[in-house]
Specification:
The structure is a single chain. The chain has 138 residues and is mainly α. The protein folds into 2 domains: 42 residues; 66 residues, no CATH class. It contains 5 helices and no strands. The mean pLDDT is 77. Helix 1 packs antiparallel against helix 2 and helix 4 crosses helix 5. The chain starts with a helix and ends with a helix.
């Protein structure tokens, strides 16, 4: 995981430090020292927890595939459409409330936001992570 993040952070850290601590506030040597300390802190972080999380997600997917294989066609179809139905249904409800005067109450809005974050956020991660890891392996 560190191999994925470190190239981006090595370009990002100097820019952030220049914006947060301009030349008038700090010397170049102090800024370089802080940048080096931040890079060492990132490199020393425990990335095993992040890798374990991805391995856990992968094992959960494999378990779900095994469970679907046990069922029949109807249960397979139902398992495949539950998440998209909830995600797209919530998206339609939010779109309707934006274009009309319909107000979503706070508890329902919290549920809808959670569903949208899990559905669309999960889909983005599922689609982008293999592309990023494939590009880094090349």
């Amino acid at each position: 995981m560190l191999n994925l993040i470190l190239p981006f952070l090595s370009n990002l850290l100097p820019d952030i430090l220049k914006r947060v601590l301009p030349a008038e506030k700090i010397s170049e040597t102090d800024r370089a020292n802080i940048e080096q300390q931040l890079t060492l802190a990132i490199m020393g972080a425990d990335w095993k927890a992040v890798e374990a999380e991805y391995a856990d997600r992968n094992s959960a997917r494999e378990l779900a595939k095994a469970d679907i294989a046990i069922g029949n066609a109807v249960t397979g179809i139902l398992a495949a459409i539950v998440r998209p139905l909830w995600g797209i249904g919530c998206f339609i409800l939010v779109s309707y409330s934006v274009f009309s005067d319909y107000k979503i109450n706070a508890p329902l809005q919290a549920i809808i936001e959670t569903v949208l974050m899990f559905y669309f956020g999960g889909r983005v991660i599922e689609k982008i992570i293999p592309t990023i890891t494939g590009a880094i392996k090349k």
